Each structure stands twice: as structure tokens, then as C-alpha cells.
Amino acid sequence: MYLKNFDRFFSPLQWQIILTTAQIAHDLNLRAFAVGGIVRDAIVRENHPSPPLHKDLDLVFDGGEQAGMKVAIALHQLFPASKLQLHEKFQTAALSWQDADQDFEMDMATARREIYAYAGANPQVIATILEDDLWRRDFTVNALAIELDPQLGIKGEVIDRFNGLADLANKQVRAIRTGSFEEDPRRLFRAVRFAVRLDFEISTETHAEIMATTASGIHDAIGGARLRSELLYTLAEPRAGAMFALLQKLGALRCIHPELILPADLANSFKHQWRRSQYWLNLLKRLEIKTYAPLQLGLELLLSYLPDQIATQLDLGLTPEQKTRQQRLASLLLDLANPTNFGSKKSDITQFLQQFDTPTLILAGIKCKPAYRRIVWQYLSQWQLVKSPLTGADLTQLGYTKGKQMGAIIQSLRFAMIDREIYTKEDAIAYLQAQN
What we know:
By secondary structure, this protein is of the alpha+beta class. It is 49% helix and 13% strand. The protein is elongated.
């Protein structure tokens, strides 16, 4: 198969950089290839009238040790506005462009073989040729490549060692080889993301291998930065709810913890919960209320389906604040299920809820029943913003002395405003006089 008009999938700057990269590789006596997603998506969207531009460009170079790093360093010298990161251990580099007009990243890897000391370990890397590099990849549809040429852009047909083109046509996600899920649990999550994102099915044999791998318990509660990254990548997807539903069906959530069970209607409930959290975060931001990073909130939402005693012990990089929030969230949800715990007046509810930070309240509001959700939202968007009509200076002029008593008076006036017992400074003064 020949790819036509490959350049239309890139911005003019991206295409210029790709041609320059191919020239640098040629001058260094290296071969340069576009691999994976950019080739796969160009095939899938070949007839699309206006395909979206790529933001992640994966290139592979063969011809010697550290080939990708050598090209990246030379390219960075020609495009100093880019940001260069080198990963010598894995013989890879990344160049990123981030400004008002450009926002994309190039991953520049040395063609390599990977050796895993044990399941889930970081691999040992040995430089090799492209054909061997493709073997180490996860799925057939991600192991497609095309050689780059400095004059022509691309040359030759799409390189397809594992019938990835057929799987693209049949909308199948298929592992390249057996044992890959045992070798690297990240592939469990990648299989699901690709299947849901592309509306593909996981092939019969790959599905069976995933089920066998998760059932074995080899990756139970593995924790670590790599699992955390996979969870955050999945949470960032537009169809995160459907992805987590499929992950649960495949048993892959055991990687977080074997006791993690999400709602049966997760594809819908998580989707709505996730959208609701984004809506709340955006509105609170407009109100200039300090909120929280959305993906971190999503991770905490996911973990809240575990007992807090378990969630706080997982190796997922939770901060002490996040661990405390899991504990306080569990307590708050119990209280919200029994509103007699905090009274019926708006000021009573405010006094109770103000002891919790905004992320805890957002998580509780997402998970509790609709009637109590409205209460939490009213507190976040209205009641917590209400201030006393009289300041400390006003009270001093009225003869009150500074100290705890003045703070209590200001608080009582604020609560009276929330309950709509007073509206103005004059109302507040009369309110205080009536109490004396």
C-alpha cells in the first residue's frame, strides 16, 4: 500500500521539520521512519476531507547506537525554539514545540530491542534495525511504518510485518505476539484505549490472552509511576467512561487493586460524573474559586470506589493531602446520606461543609444523590461566597472590641445573610441590637 498526500496530515512547519529530519538522518548514514499512530491514522483518515493535524509524531532511526538522540540533537540546533529532552537509558529523545501557533511533540527513538528482567520492569535497550524494532511493539495496527525521504517526503510502500493493514480494515486490535501483556501491563490499558477510541474490537485471541493475564493476578495492585501514567492517560480521553467499563470487564482494574469495583453502568455513570466534574471546575474557575487539576480529581474519583483504608495505601503517588481527602470524602458521603447530621438551615449546612476543601466537596457532589448534590453545589457556588455586611472596622465603630467575640459576630452576620434574615448594613445593625 502506498500513502498518498502524506503531507496533508501535518502543518507546514511540521512537514518542514520532517523533511529536515530525513535529511539529517541521510547525512548521518541513518534510516528514518514514521511509525505507529501517524501512519495508522493517515491510513484510517486517507479519504477524510480535512483530517486533524498530528500533535504526537513518532519517528524511529536505525543505523547504530543512539541514532534517535543524534538526529534529535542536530535537529534542535536547527530549530532552537524547540525544547529538547534526552533519555539516554532508552536511547530516545523528544523535541516539543509549544507556542501560540504550534503545539506538538516529536518522539525520536533509536530502533531497538527491549529485554524485560521481570513482568512490569523497565526494559533494557539494545540498538537494532527497524524490522526488529517493530517486533517489540504492542499491536499490529501500531506497527506500521513508512520510510522518510528528504526530497520525496516518503518512499516505498507502508511496511507491514504483522498484517496490521488487514486488522485496520477489519477494525481489530490484535497483539503482535503472545506474552506481551504479561511482559508489560501498560499494554492492557493501551489495548482498551485504542479499541474504544477507534471503535475497534479486541481480537478473539488477544481478548483471551488479556483475560488469562488478569485472572492470573500477576499484575494485581502493581502500583508505580507507570500505572499512574496509564490511568491519567485514560482519564484524559473523551470516552474515559467507556474505557474504564471495558477495563473492568477485562479484569484490568485489578492492576489498581483486586477489590476495585466500579458501578455496573460505568460507561454512563462515570461519563456523567466526569463531565459534571469538568462543568463544576470550569464554573468555579470563573467565580475565581481555587479548584484542582482535573486529571488528579479524576484519579481520586476512581480511587474513591475503594475503601479509603486501601486507597491510601496504594503506590500511586498520592500526596498526603490526597490521602487525607480520600478519608474525609468517605466520611462526608456518609454524612450526606443522613442530612439530619448537619441541620436544615442553609447556615447550618454552610457551617458543616466549610470544614472541607473544594476538591473533596466536588468529589462528594459528583457521587452523592441528586438532592444532596444540589446542596453541595449551592454551597460551592453561592453560600461560601457570602460575606458579612459589617466588617471589623464597622464593628469597632459600633463599640465592639477586637478578638474572638468580634470574629464570632462577623460569622453570625454572615450566616444571617445566608439564611436571608438580613440584607444590608442597616439590617445587620438592627439584628445585633435585637440580640443585645
